[in-house]
Specification:
The protein is mostly helical. The chain has three domains: 135 residues, no CATH class; 164 residues, no CATH class; 84 residues, TonB (TolA/TonB C-terminal domain, 2-Layer Sandwich). It is elongated and about 100 Å long. About 8% of the residues have low confidence.
Length: 424
């Protein structure tokens, strides 16, 4: 498969995820509503599954398309999308317009992904440099190690005190480290800071930092879809509640953690988006949950995702019906390769041949591939003058074509063209 075909397939996968992401988000929302009074671990699993599906669905489509022509078509039909070439000559055909601009779509997507990767790499480098350079606190390191042992962590947990940091941050899963703001060490009561550290140990116990990095990968690749960011935010919200429950169990007093979170809220610390911190999520909601756990009643607004899901399926069904009709018409089409005359320039008459009064007709045979690009070409009948033959070759290379169709599918085909050189 050519690079251009790969780019076209990737472009269609990215475009089709617009509706696929909506379907996944609606299903995830309904499951979260149904589990509103369940343990946060259940909602966390559902949200993680939804985010994983956001990546797996388009990845499976792309793999099926790149597997080969026949497998690609079967996979495309199964997942409700089409990758066949659409005749660009049809007026008002938005599919043809998208097909013509998939290269630009993929280029823009690639640039944004590269920028987001650079941002994430910068954050990881900052964490690594901070862990190496910042000092530790022997007293708090001993407290954290004792807490980790009581919580059943079978590994050492390092502690670093950082000057310019908003709130405690957990980094690493193989050799975990907790970054603690120097202002908290100096100004927060020790028993409240211990509650925040217990929360961080909950993240380490569950390897949340690693999961968060995997979330960042999905967010980077599918950054353009709001559903991805909404599901990812729900994962972080449920993750914070799980860590809160972990800390409350090992502290034996939920009010202690609630007081610590209240102190963070009072000091108005800002959060970080790279690693899991003790102030992630809605602090007030977390404090209320710790102090007054209660069941949630069903809200009529929960029906909105159901309506959205129904509309998404209805729109997809209508689009697929229209697509099937278009493909049915295309399958019956068998045409020759046609030149896009708007892209073809008239060859320049060589000045030497004009001066010499040369005239003639050159017949060129050329190969048009499935994307409409001229590959190989040869002179079948010369005009008798090499300079005029070469000028005709040069004009042909600049011309684009609509590929030949056999039963609606673009095929590679040899065709011919004549250039008539006459002096008026």
């Amino acid at each position: 498969m050519s690079a251009q075909a790969v780019v076209a397939a990737l472009g269609w996968v990215l475009l089709n995820f617009l509706w696929q992401g909506c379907v996944i988000a609606c299903i995830t929302a309904e499951l979260l509503v149904a589990l509103r009074n369940a343990r946060p671990e259940s909602r966390y699993a559902v949200a993680c599954l939804g985010l994983a599906l956001c990546l797996a669905w388009p990845a499976a489509v792309l793999v099926s398309v790149l597997a080969g022509p026949h497998d690609a078509q079967a996979g495309a039909v199964f997942f409700g999308i089409g990758f066949q070439a659409v005749p660009a000559s049809e007026p008002g055909n938005w599919l043809a317009w998208l097909q013509a601009h998939t290269g630009w779509i993929v280029a823009l997507w690639t640039a944004c992904v590269a920028a987001l990767c650079l941002r994430t790499a910068t954050g990881l480098l900052w964490i690594g440099r901070t862990v190496r350079k910042e000092r530790g606190d022997p007293a708090w390191q001993a407290r954290l190690s004792a807490m980790a042992e009581r919580c059943g962590l079978g590994r050492d947990v390092r502690l670093r005190v950082v000057e310019r940091l908003a709130s405690p941050v957990t980094a690493g899963w193989w050799r975990p480290v907790v970054l603690v703001p120097a202002s908290l060490v100096a100004g927060m009561p020790p028993h409240l800071l211990e509650a925040l550290l217990a929360h961080e140990l909950g993240h380490i116990k569950r390897h949340d930092y690693l999961v968060n990095l995997l979330q960042n990968v999905v967010e980077i690749l599918l950054f353009y879809h709001p559903a991805v960011w909404w599901i990812s935010r729900r994962i972080r919200t449920e993750r914070e509640q799980i860590a809160d429950d972990f800390a409350a169990r090992h502290l034996g007093d939920p009010r202690r953690l609630a007081l610590a979170l209240s102190e963070l809220e009072r000091l108005q610390f800002a959060g970080t988006g790279l690693a899991q911190a003790a102030n992630g999520g809605d602090l007030l909601a977390r404090i209320r949950r710790l102090l007054r756990p209660s069941t949630q009643s069903l809200d009529w607004r929960a029906l909105v995702p159901v309506l959205g899901l129904a509309l998404a399926f209805a729109g997809s069904a209508q689009a697929l019906a229209g697509r099937d009709a278009v493909l049915a018409d295309q399958r019956s089409m068998t045409t020759k390769a046609l030149a896009d005359f708007s892209s073809c320039a008239r060859p320049d008459y060589p000045q030497a041949d004009i001066d010499a009064g040369h005239q003639g007709t050159v017949t060129l045979a050329f190969l048009v591939d499935q994307t409409g690009i001229v590959g190989d070409s040869r002179v079948e009948r010369s005009s008798g003058f090499a300079s005029m033959d070469e000028a005709a070759h040069g004009a042909l290379r600049k011309c684009r074509f609509h590929p030949a169709l056999q039963q609606g599918r673009p095929v590679t085909e040899w065709t011919r063209v004549q250039y008539v050189w006459t002096l008026e």
